[in-house]
Amino acid sequence: MSEQGKEHAEHTSHHPTYGTYIMVWIGLVALTSITVTVAGIKLGSLTLITALTIATIKTLMVTYYFMHVKFDNRVIKIFILVCLIIFLILWILTFSDLSFR
User: Fold this and answer.
1) Of 27, 75, 82, 101, whose CB count within 10 A is highest?
2) Would you say the C-alpha torsion 47, 48, 50, 51 has a positive or negative sign?
3) 8 Å CB contact between 31 and 59
């Protein structure tokens, strides 16, 4: 079997089951309800940090399972990581202007 055939065989064998999708969906619904609950509680500055942390976890769950990044090649994961780092750098540079006003 050629190298491409082996890679294709390895790639097609990794498909989540419906049970995995349902568990991820239940997790997303649970995290959404936690976000709504936390929004109603007065935590001060921790409210924003908590909401962003939960949103990050939900984003990772959607990206890994529903977009199948968990089962992609390492190169794709590296490209996604590089894009996220560049995005964060640009975001920090843009909003760092607020501290100089």
Assistant:
1) 27
2) positive
3) no
